[in-house]
Design goal:
Blueprint (H helix, E strand, L loop, with lengths): L2 H11 L5 E5 L5 H9 L4 E4 L2 H8 L8 E4 L8 H4 L5 E5 L2 H14 L4 E7 L12 H13 L5 E8 L7 H21 L9 E3 L6 H6 L4 E4 L1 H4 L5
The structure holds pyridoxal-5'-phosphate (PLP).
Length: about 220
Amino acid sequence: MSIASEIKDIKAQLPPTTRLVAVSKFHPSEKILEAYRAGQKIFAESRPQELAAKVAGGLPSDIEWHFIGHLQTNKLKMVVPHAALIHSVDSARLLREIDRYMINKGLRKAECLLEIFIAAEESKQGLDETELRELAENLRKDPLRGVEVRGLMGMASFVDDSRQIRNEFARLAELYRSVKNEYADIFPRFNELSMGMSNDYPLALEYGSTLVRIGTRIFGAREY
Ligand SMILES: *Cc1c(COP(=O)(O)O)cnc(C)c1O
């Protein structure tokens, strides 16, 4: 199937409250343009250099770029000025560094999601529930001025067992709702739940995902 028909099919499955994020990492700008011409406006990258190069590479200026990869604090300048949403803030330190960057540069607030570790796999990336609550309590005492925390992001285990994937999405959705309620004072615009990829987004939708991040299903396999 073509990129355009994949996008059309996926969009037909999404409720009006869920947005499609087309994950274009490792794919060339021609494919991005093909998706753009099919009406897709949100694209996500996971490597700072690649994001910066694609932003500078003459693609349409109304593309909304998201960042979904691991972000080191020495790479902020390649990402933060370009990203409408950073899905992958996985430590209190990174959040503080982004805050400081925005304030120093006099930029608008950076919109961020906190990445939560929900998978069973050992390769741990993201905050656990305790770390998330610690971070929120800390922000109450020492608020951010250059960052708006918009919600949570998570990745389910890469397994075939749909019951396990459901459990992980259900836990993330529950954590999202409780943080939204308990910390409405420090997170007033907390309304995004980023979960679901090519292989598991239909399950994520059942648990209220507002952003699905889909690459392979749209663009085919990546060449690393
Ligand atoms: C690569 C990536 C995706 C897209 O995965 P596909 O299986 O190609 O849909 C989604 N989220 C994150 C964080 C990724 O790194």
